[in-house]
Every structure is written in C-alpha cells, then in structure tokens.
Amino acid sequence: MGFLIFMNMNIIEKALEEKYGDYLVGLDVYETATSLILSRIVLNKESRNAGIGTQIMTDLINYADKNKQIIALTPSSDFGGNKNKLIQFYKKFGFKKNAGQYKHYEFKDDMIRYPRGLNESKLLIKTLLREALDKTIKCNECGWTWKESESSKKDLYNCHKCGHDNTPKKSLNESLLTKKESDLKKIADFVNFAKEYLEIDDDVKIELAFEKTPDIRTTAYYNNGDKRMRIYVKNRAVIDICRSIAHELVHHKQNIDGKFEDAKDPGADGSEFENEANAVSGVIIRKWGRLNPEIYD
Hints:
Blueprint: H1 11-20, E1 24-31, E2 35-43, H2 52-66, E3 70-73, H3 83-91, E4 96-97, E5 111-113, H4 118-133, E6 136-138, E7 145-147, H5 181-198, E8 205-209, E9 220-223, E10 228-232, H6 238-256, H7 272-291
Parallel strand pairs: 2-3, 8-10
Antiparallel strand pairs: 1-2, 3-5, 4-5, 6-7, 9-10
C-alpha cells in the first residue's frame, strides 16, 4: 500500500500566506517532495472575484512545475463556493478528473494536475508502445498491408484483400551478422538513420563485441558517464542487433537531454526511461524495415 510522508515545513504555503495574507481567510497546502495537496483556499468576501484566486493558483502551479510536483485537490462547496464553478476554474489550470488515463492511485482527491511535461510524456510513451506492438503484416501475394489489431487471431495472416494465407514459416530466415564489410555497412547506415530520427547530432561511440566481456551482462549496455555503448553481436541477426542499438541510442538521447540528472536508476526494469526506450526503438526498427525490407531476408 502506498503512503505519503508530509514535510514539516510547507514552503509554498508559507510563501503564499506572506504574499496574500491580507486576502485570505484560510489556506491549507500539504507538501511532500513529489506532491502538493490543496485542502483549502478561502478568500475574504472583499477579495473575491478580483483575480486574487487566479494569482494564487498561478503561483502554486509555477512552484509545482519547477519542483516536478503533482497537485491534488477536491472541489467543495463547504467554504461558500459553487462546486461546479470551482471544477471549471481548476480545469483552466490543467487539472483533470483523477480517473482513467490520469488516475493516480496514491491520491483519493477528485482532481489532479501533473507537472508540466510529466503526464504528456507518459501518454506519449503509451501511444508509442501501442504503435510499436501493433505489427504491420504485408501480403506476399498482392502487397496489401494491415495491422494485427485489425484481425482476429484466427485469421491474423489471411489477406483482407485477396485472401492469401501469409502465415510465416517456422524457420528463422533473418541473416546473422558477419564481419563482412557489407554487414557492417548495414549497421552504420542504420545508426545514421536512427540518429537522424532521434535528432542526435554528436558522435556516438558504438562498439560491436563479438565476444562476451564482464561488462556485457545482457546483449547491450550504455555508459551514462562516457556516453559509450557496447553491443554483443555474436550469433545474432542483423535486425536484432539494430534493435539493441536503437534502444541504447534512445538512452543516449535521454542522457544528452538531461533526463538522467535526477534519476536514481534510469535503467531499472519498468522505469519510464526503459519504457520509452522499448517503445521508440520499436518504432525506429519498423520505419527502417519499411525502407529496407531486405534486412528480414
């Protein structure tokens, strides 16, 4: 069960009281390192409908965005306000109903606002994951294409246009990487394509390892410090190697964009960084495959 630890000193609450104390009857903001819970904000009668509430909310939101804090609240008529008007008021500041895709299970409050950029990134990752996982199938007979999501499992590989059965053979046809110049050129061309897609301008250090070393515990790794990646390639298909490179290039992009600065373990399974790398690398591979279908031969 999740829990929240409240800070002893509510920095923003004290700052707002000092700035707007003459207009306030009551203000309660509970602050943690990652959230602000607005329990009460009540203005005196003389200060209502004068834009003071808007100024207070603007200051509160700027503080939350700067510190990457979620704001949670529950509109109420307990202090003389109209609940429906309050809901519309908070919506103007980006608050959403705490449900559906915006649901955060640590908060029981009715409305929630994620710091600028945070929730948008989560939604983008979800969209990219869905796109990456929704495979495109091409008919070998007539060239028609369709998405896996557009077919039932029973007739997944039956062409929607001509009816041809495109069920793949059980044998793996993907060619394994060799040390031939032609294969290495395929890798180099893919790296340039992926760099352009990710808008990476700096020189990336990529080492292809034909033997396992202690620093390669899986199939690839990226060193955040010297921005170098090593890819294990022995007995692996070219397309599979490209997929690993794309994944690590996404991490490189995250690193040079400063996303790792406050991250404790960006490579942890299930982290937002890993989810983004899985999603975006899948998109890159699919786009590259459409331009270079021979990589599947």
